[in-house]
């Protein structure tokens, strides 16, 4: 319990900052939507003037941007990126925090098993990403309702946040696994960040080139589409199951690697 409290306390400031950043993205997105709506600009003609490659990179596909649900779905890409970075960094840092701060000997010499140390850290991680997710949910419903005649699209946003939480779990597990396997925090966070960039670039490449469609399976950014979640209110069950199973495997590898790791004091 002390490990859990310490981990939660150590991440309060960073969690607030991440949540504020997410709320700002949602606020800015809805303000941009309102700006387009007030200007009476033909969004279809406006977007048709941009190259397809640019549209795909920024997550703008064939959705109707004149509707709140369509406009909001575009921002799911940014939600995924921000949530992925937050989750993966938490996992990588939490597992090796004591070694980074050169105080591992004060914790690991106590009469407790490593399982009793790593488990509260991972639970703290799940609580943190859940708080981040709920803040995203609340801000989304609030700002959407302001620009949609009081309708916050509760059911659509709920499905979207469920998909986001599954992605967050995957990246938390990925970061924790790197934190347990690699020798130091800097290396773990660097590799984790490189993985996120790699996943994103693969997802863009798949959108740009049809021949690379077979690569969708290796990037979690293609497991859920914002338009499918927000407009069709459909969560891909196979994608959710795959990500949850992989997350469980990564958490298991984290426990094994952490138990066999030579700790630095």
Our Rg estimate from Cα atoms comes to 20 Å
What is the SS-derived class? mainly alpha
* Tally of distinct domains: 1
- Helix fraction bin: over 70%
Give structural notes.
It holds the Pfam family ABC2_membrane_2. This is ABC transporter permease subunit. With 265 residues, the chain is an all-alpha fold. The protein has one domain. Helix content is 75%, strand content 0%. It contains 13 helices and no strands. α6 packs antiparallel against α9. It starts with a helix and ends in a 5-residue tail after the last helix. The mean pLDDT is 82.
Keywords, separated by commas or semicolons:
single chain, 265 residues, mainly alpha, 13 helices, 75% helix, globular
SSE layout:
Blueprint: H1 2-10, H2 12-39, H3 43-48, H4 52-57, H5 68-74, H6 76-95, H7 97-100, H8 104-108, H9 115-146, H10 154-181, H11 185-208, H12 226-230, H13 237-260
Summarize the structure.
The chain is mostly helical and 265 residues long. It has helices at residues 2-10, 12-39, 43-48, 52-57, 68-74, 76-95, 97-100, 104-108, 115-146, 154-181, 185-208, 226-230, 237-260. Helix 2 packs antiparallel against helix 6, helix 6 packs antiparallel against helix 9 (115-146) and helix 6 (76-95) runs antiparallel to helix 11.
